[in-house]
């Protein structure tokens, strides 16, 4: 499981850097300041949680079952939270109305919070 988590963390971190560069260079020319700031919020949260997953994968003090649950909450949270933010902030470019999927943004945020809470509980339980 650790290897899978570490590989996922590396991939998500790399994608966050690519999207950050894309936003800074290409999207800066076509999005307004507010849209660009929203896009960058998605990038920040993706990178924070890529680092979170890296910590999780490198940590041997967390039981495997909890690690798996934290991994899936984090991965789905990133996809829902950051993914929906990317789509919503670039609607003017794609001409696709992504507003209906806006409901998954807070669901993704809740999943990320739950991942952190589960990690916290693992260390509270640890003697």
TrEMBL record:
Subcellular location: Membrane
UniProt membrane topology term: Multi-pass membrane protein
Domain of life: Bacteria
Residues that span the membrane, as ranges: 42-58, 70-89, 101-121
UniProtKB keywords: Membrane, Transmembrane, Transmembrane helix
One GO CC term, this protein: plasma membrane
Signal peptide: none
One Pfam family of this chain: DUF423
Main location as per UniProt: membrane
Protein family: Belongs to the UPF0382 family.
Protein known as: Uncharacterized membrane protein YgdD (TMEM256/DUF423 family)
Species: Flavobacterium dankookense
């Amino acid at each position: 499981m650790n290897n899978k988590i570490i590989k996922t963390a590396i991939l998500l971190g790399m994608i966050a850097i690519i999207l950050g560069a894309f936003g800074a260079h290409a999207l800066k020319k076509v999005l307004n300041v507010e849209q660009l700031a929203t896009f960058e919020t998605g990038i920040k949260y993706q990178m924070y949680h890529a680092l979170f997953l890296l910590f999780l994968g490198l940590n041997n003090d967390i039981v495997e079952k909890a690690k798996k649950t934290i991994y899936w909450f984090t991965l789905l949270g990133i996809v829902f939270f950051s993914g929906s933010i990317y789509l919503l902030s670039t609607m003017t470019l794609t001409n696709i109305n992504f507003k209906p999927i806006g409901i998954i943004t807070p669901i993704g945020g809740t999943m990320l919070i739950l991942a952190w809470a589960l990690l916290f509980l693992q260390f509270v339980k640890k003697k």
